[in-house]
From TrEMBL:
This is MPN domain-containing protein. Belongs to the EMC8/EMC9 family. Pfam families: UPF0172. InterPro entries: EMC8/9 (IPR005366), MPN (IPR037518). It comes from the Eukaryota. It comes from Aristolochia fimbriata. GO terms for cellular component: EMC complex. PROSITE patterns: MPN. Gene3D superfamilies: Cytidine Deaminase, domain 2 (3.40.140.10).
Length: 202
């Protein structure tokens, strides 16, 4: 089950979800994690798709987004492997019920699903150069099918695929590249905007 899994998050997936949260600091933001299961207990998170910054997505919007994401990545052998969320308030570090329900929905199709919750304190420490671990908290399902946060040793369960990811992230933050991030909300308002954010890393 998810609690036995390890999770590797690729640099671009990690940077994109943090930049999405930083672009909308006064809103809750969320998105979808895309990847694959490697072997029995390693989930590689290879991309993140920013979903919303205005509100927790309504079920029809979420389902449309999930279908589009699944369809797009299917040819690459990738699928939806989790969900990410950043709370509206800086000091709110709890995983809300709506996030858990969205995670439940995803885990019906991918039992090893993870939820990543942006950790503002870790992000602040990272920006001060005091931390090199991922600026997110990992949640997985335990044996009783409840979402639980990985313990203090979560770094043994969640790791950055590229060790330099935080250095690159800080560069993106300093150059304000995150302002270019497009989420599904933006795309629905203007379909010319690319929800894949293909140009961000060029």
């Amino acid at each position: 089950m998810g609690s036995e899994c390890k999770y590797d998050i690729r640099q671009n997936a990690y940077i994109k979800l943090v930049l999405h949260a930083l672009k909308h600091k006064t809103s809750s933001v969320n998105g979808i994690l895309v990847g694959r299961l490697l072997g029995d207990n390693l989930v590689e998170i290879s991309d993140s798709i920013p979903l919303s910054h205005t509100q927790i997505p309504l079920l029809p919007t979420l389902e449309i987004a999930l279908l589009q994401v699944e369809e797009y990545f299917k040819s690459e052998g990738l699928g939806v492997v989790g969900y990410y969320h950043a709370n509206e308030r800086y000091d709110d570090s709890d995983l809300g019920n709506v996030s858990k329900k969205i995670g439940d929905q995803i885990s019906r199709y991918f039992p090893q699903a993870a939820i990543l919750l942006l950790d503002n304190k870790k992000l602040e420490a990272l920006q001060k150069g005091n931390d090199t671990s991922p600026a997110v908290q990992l949640y997985t399902k335990d044996a009783s099918k409840s979402w639980r946060q990985a313990g203090a040793d979560s770094s043994s369960q969640l790791s950055l695929k590229e060790p330099s990811a935080n250095v690159v992230l800080l560069d993106y933050i300093s150059t304000e590249k995150g302002k270019e991030i497009v989420d599904f909300d933006d795309h629905l308002d203007d379909i010319s905007k690319d929800w894949l954010n293909a140009d961000i890393f060029k």
